[in-house]
Amino acid sequence: MNNKTGDKDLNLVIAGHVDHGKSTIIGRMLADTDSLPEGKLEQVKETCRKNSKPFEYAFLLDALKDEQAQGITIDSARVFFQTDFRQYIILDAPGHIEFLKNMVTGAARAEAALLVIDASEGVKENSRRHGYMLSMLGIKQIAVVVNKMDLVDYDEDTYNEIVAEYTEFLAELGMEAETFIPVSGMLGDNVADSSENMDWYHGKTVLEQLDSFENEALPHNKPFRMPVQDVYKFTKGGDDRRIVAGTVGAGELNIGDEVVFYPSGKKSTVKTIEGFKEDQQHKVKVGKATGFTLDEQIYITRGELASRADEAEPKVSARIKANLFWLARQDLVKDKVYYLKVGTAKVKARLEKINRVIDASNLDQDESKEKIERHDVAEVVFKLDKAMAFDLAGEIEETSRFVIVDDFEIAGGGIISEAMEDEQSWVREKVMRRNYNWEQSLISREDRAEKYNQKSTLILITGEEDVGKKPTAKALEKRLFNDGKVVYFLGIGNLLYGVDADIKNGDNGHKEEHLRRLAEVSHLMLDAGAILVVTAVELSQSDLELIKTTVNPQQIETVWLGDRVTTDLEFDLHIPEFTSEKEVSGQIKGLLQDRGIIFRPW
């Protein structure tokens, strides 16, 4: 094999309409760069001869899929080869689910693209669709390969017509191809060597064009972003470190930097930067899997987005406008719950609105569609079940791309174009300000849970009037107290005539502020490690979402008491009948044991 001299590998995506010759182009490049195992080309040719089958370079890909042991790696999404200049990793085209998943989640960074068009068929629907998807994914270096020129007798006019048509289409997307290369993948014209059959073409060969692509610079100069993968706690040998781990998506982080985690708004200062089997570091840069410890131990979880306090902050919202491409066979519809993933964050999402569906093959727009079908591209609004942190397309790619998961499968993906106002925005701003200025205790949440042998939890008991909510709540408090738990029953009246005394009682216009204050009191009680039991009449899902903005959703359990469910609340336990205080409180205690909030004795 040749020795590469380029600075680094280049990730290349190859796209094109079915049967336009993608596999032939790849096979030819493997052969012409001596990237095949010794004797493999002759072996495939001989197999074709024995089977009276004409040899095609596309056959090399099929023959190599089981060849990892012989020094080449080929799978459904990646092919490796190299020129004298550098090594290339070819990623399969848009439309291939693995490619899209990797691109959107940042697992792969396609830095350039080859888009293959059949000279004999011309620009097809998929040629345009793939161009649109490449533009959505932010791939700016594109070369168009006009393949099968031998089938049109190497006609320059045919080539020029394709160049004119596709250049016009790309211009509508705000894109421009670096070059159009007329080739015959089968015969090798203009792949590795210039073609005598097309003396009218004076540009680069395919391999020369690849070597002229520039490696995309990592976003060192962007604001620091690190999606939190996990928080690791050490206990062995007196090691009390808590390491916040993840991969830096943009920017850099230094010891002493103040970091803010979103969407919670919690902050602390970097104490140390940790690496696996590495010496002490003072700085970590983009692309690095790393971990760091904090001066003050704050409670954060997977899915939060770490940023620096002295740099631009990410957007935070539970409603987003996005450009989406849909790949699943089942339509994207409004009455279904999906999962939306950005970085390490994963939240439930519903399609709220379809602004327009765009036909990627001709850019026609339809503003009347009520569902999004396979291969549709659309501008949509998603409503999330809780706020998440992200950046906008064009700002930081790694934190502006998302995928939609449906039934455990990647069903589509796209880029976030706008953070929209949601019903909890006003509360979230207060919560982030509170968290930013929060004075940390020397006693951690985990220390309190271990001391009290319980997880701090807010238990919301709701239902219609006079269904036994208060007797149940008081009985539950007494039961848990007798078990040695730190527990408190908070009646709404205690709030209304105390903390809420400055708000006019009975004025429904202040309901949201009542709920916000209830949530803030709950937050204090949970921070102290207590189990808090609260009753309220007919809580709705929007009421719960407002409370979740202030209280960690993982610390809330909801119980609907009574046969008639009168709101859209997504409760954790439904008790249709108030039989007795003892029996109903026992059922709720069972829920707490099932959730691991309190211990269940064997």
UniProtKB/TrEMBL annotation:
Its EC number is 2.7.7.4. It comes from Halanaerobium kushneri. It comes from the Bacteria. It is an enzyme of class 2 (transferase). Gene3D superfamilies: P-loop containing nucleotide triphosphate hydrolases (3.40.50.300), Translation factors (2.40.30.10). PANTHER family: TRANSLATION FACTOR. This is sulfate adenylyltransferase. The keyword Signal does not apply.
